[in-house]
Amino acid sequence: MIRFEKRPQPSRLSSLATPLLAVMATMVFGGFLFAVLGKDPVQSIVTIFWEPLFGEFAFYYRPQLLIKGAPLVLIAIGLALGFKAGVWNIGAEGQYIMGAIFGAGVGLAFYPTESFWVFPLMILAGAFGGWMWATIPAILKVKFGTNEILVSLMLVYVAEQFLASMSLGLLKNPEGFGFPGSRNLQQYASAHNTDIIAGSGMHWGVVAALIAVIFAYVLLARHRLGFAIRVTGEAPRAARFGGVNPSRLILFCLGISGMLAGLAGMFEVSGPAGQITIDFNVGYGFTAIIVAFLGRLHPIGIMFAGLLMALTYIGGDIAQSQLQLPAAAIQVFQGMLLFFLLAFDLLTNYRVRIGSSEFPT
Amino acid sequence: MDLSAINPIILIAALISAATPILLAATGELVAERAGVLNLGVEGMMITGAVSGFIISVNTGSPAIGFAMAAVGGATLSLLFAFLTQVALANQVASGLALTLFGLGISSLLGQNYVGIKPPRMPDVDFGPISDIPVLGQIMFSHDPIVYVGLFIVAGVWTTLKFTRAGLILRAVGENHDAAHALGYKVKRIRTLAIMFGGACAGMGGAYISLIRVPQWTEGMTAGVGWIALALVVFASWKPWRVLLGAYLFGGITQLQLNLQGAGIAIPVEYLAMSPYIVTIVVLVILSADKSRAPGSLGRIFHASQ
Q1: Out of B84, B231, B285, closest to residue A339 by CB
Q2: Residue B219: its chain A contacts at CB < 8 A?
Q3: CA-nearest residue of chain B to A136?
Q4: Eight-class DSSP state of B118
Q5: How large is the greatest C-alpha to C-alpha distance in chain B, in angstroms?
Q6: Cβ–Cβ of A342/B98 closer than 8 Å?
Q7: Distance CA B92, CA B90 (A)
Q8: pLDDT digit string (tens) for A182-236?
Q9: Would you tell me which residues 288-307 of chain A have a C-beta closer than 8 angstroms to some C-beta of chain B?
Q10: ∠ at Cα A281 (A72, B231), nearest 5°?
Q11: A226 inside domain
């Protein structure tokens, strides 16, 4: 008989190994899924994981890795801070949308004024939009004890409707011949989030993501607040006795994750996406949850996890055009990854013992 | 704007139908939560039920078989959650999210060839002359069978939880799993069954959307109903009849905003469409003061050796 024995402390080795195991298991089972769909499994996996990095057109896909990875990392860093403290913000998608609307809104308000100050103002507005949207569940949780999971998620749907309303109404391009969607910010130099080094994919969002990684790392490893976050997650009672104010921690965790998600949305709308449209959001806010877990809620881990997830997006696009692999298959693939990760986590927290014990301790 | 176009009797009849998916999903989740399991995968199980019920109905031509298979589909997906939380002892919040993300993906994969098809229609129950009674007949006796199935499930859950031994054991497991374990009850087995029941109900609720409410298949068509169902369980303080009340309240709001859209009210469509979600938040805020009713072991991992 197989038994699980709780480890006194999570195993460091397995904690590093489980994400790799999960990725490998996902490749195997994903390959199986692709085979069921009538595609060559090996070729599909190679197309997804190899082609974007080392294939014939890698020079085109590599910058995409940064473009798609940056918002994922940016959002996941914020989420991870909350998850560590037991604050579950799962409405990052909504905060991302609000950040984009606020950022683009400020940019469009200045159109066509060309000034150095437009872009920094947009960044502030984007951060504010996301922060505000995440502070709603935070305040409700602190004041009334409302469940932040449900409120933040409900606000995603509200934000989606708001996005539709904005792209059909207030922010609609007056010269757009009646099509929904705002002006294209790529054609407005002051508001355009350009590549810092042309063609590298390195836009300001990537810089922000790197700063966020470093900031979160220092915060968690060196700062008192990071310590408070970790203690609250592992032993809430001990944290309270230790003088951590839970309300302030909730406000901080939700606020910062909303702010980062808002920034991600703003950088996306002013750069790669270019304009506010009804279906501007593509689910980064939800995929970032997978990224946060895959990165073990650790800033450095999240950076790699974000790049890996970006790879599956890009590889998925290639597989879609070359092998006619359905787009939804990639979504299943990403979901599978989270499953395996959670399942393999057993090995981190428990020892597997084979054979029966007479006296369970 | 023409508010007289909204007929209150038809509105009430329609809200009963609009409430059914939420009612089914929330009742299933209520059972799981009373057993101490917080399954945030309701949305994923609903959409899987929606797509599997749709595919089976289209292929067999029978909505009844479709609903049965939707329940099977939802329960099958919930087994993944049961495996993660009961066997692999994973965090329930994360596992539930995984279930939702996975369910959304798998449903759009399965349903990609079924977009734009009309499913076979499920006929209303024939009550004979009773349904001709003015007002009452129209409100109560003019629905498809699933509406009554939903009511039956609520009544069944209530009776089981309140009056039977099985219900008592289920509640014991939810209130204090260590004590229940000490008494010799199979905590994991009972929880797995409760999770599967929740999955089956959510699956049927999803199929109700794709087969009767809309009726067709579009990606992500449950649009947060599963999450509203989760909120509803809190709203109902984990009591079956209050779930019914809450479901009718949300059904009413959904239906009313649709009717207001139809009546051409001066509020833009998008803001009306926000209303069910905003109302959910408001209701959650009002009711979250009373947390005392939550099952004692809700969301906690059970490991026998502790």
Answers
A1: B84
A2: 328
A3: B281
A4: P
A5: 66
A6: yes
A7: 6
A8: 777 777 776 777 777 776 777 788 888 889 889 989 988 888 888 888 888 888 8
A9: 289-290, 293
A10: 90
A11: yes
Of B83, B101, B304, the CB nearest to A338: B101
> Is the confidence at residue B46, as pLDDT, over 70?
yes
Residue B43's nearest CA partner among B58, B26, B56, B19 is B26
A141 → chain B, closest CA residue: B285
Choice among A133-142, A252-261, B228-237, B280-289 with the minimum mean pLDDT: B280-289
Look up the ipTM and state it: 0.82
Q: Which residue of A has its CA nearest to B272?
A: A161
Alpha helices in A111-245 (DSSP H): 118-144, 148-168, 204-222, 224-234, 236-241
Do the Cβ atoms of B41 and B189 come closer than 8 Å? no
A328/B112 CB distance under 8 A: yes
DSSP state of B217: B
pLDDT of residue A134: 93
For A6, the 3-state DSSP assignment is strand
Q: Do B105 and A334 touch (CB under 8 A)?
A: yes
| A147–chain B nearest CA distance, Å | 8
Partner-chain contact B88 A338, CB within 8 Å: no
Q: Coil, strand or helix: which one is A353?
A: strand
Most confident of A6-15, B40-49, B125-134: B40-49
Boundaries of domain holding B270: 3-119+141-287
User: Does A140 sit within 8 Å of B101, measured CB to CB?
Assistant: no
The SS3 of residue A354 is strand
Closest-CA distance of chain B to residue A92, Å: 13
| Cα dihedral B239→B241→B247→B253 (10° resolution) | -110
Determine whether the interchain pair A334/B101 forms a contact, defined as Cβ–Cβ distance below 8 Å: yes
* Residue B231 with chain A: CB contacts under 8 Å: 147, 150, 154
In this prediction, residue A355 carries a pLDDT of 66
The percentage of chain B sitting over the pLDDT mark of 70, rounded to a whole number, equals 90
B205-222 confidence digits (pLDDT tens): 999 988 888 888 888 788
Considering the domain boundaries, does residue A49 fall inside one?
A: yes
Q: Which CATH number belongs to the domain containing residue B48 in this structure?
A: 1.10.3470.10
Residue A360 lies in a domain: no
Look at residue A183 and tell me if it is in a domain. yes
How close does chain A come to B282, measured CA to CA in Å?
Answer: 9
Tell whether the model's pLDDT for residue A325 goes beyond 70: yes
- pLDDT at site B306: 47
DSSP collapsed to 3 states, A292-314: HHHCCCCHHHHHHHHHHHHHHHH
**Which tens digits make up the pLDDT trace of B75-126?**
999 998 998 888 888 888 888 888 888 888 888 888 888 887 777 777 777 6
Token pair belonging to A259: 């702010």
Residue A156, domain CATH: 1.10.3470
Domain ranges, residue A235: 38-325
Pick B227's closest partner by Cβ from A140, A150, A168: A150
Global pTM?
Answer: 0.86
pLDDT at res. A130: 93
Q: Is residue A282 within 8 Å of A93, Cβ to Cβ? A: no
pLDDT at B194: 92
DSSP string, A250-269: HHHHHHHHHHHHHHHHHHHH
Q: Say how many residues make up chain B.
A: 306
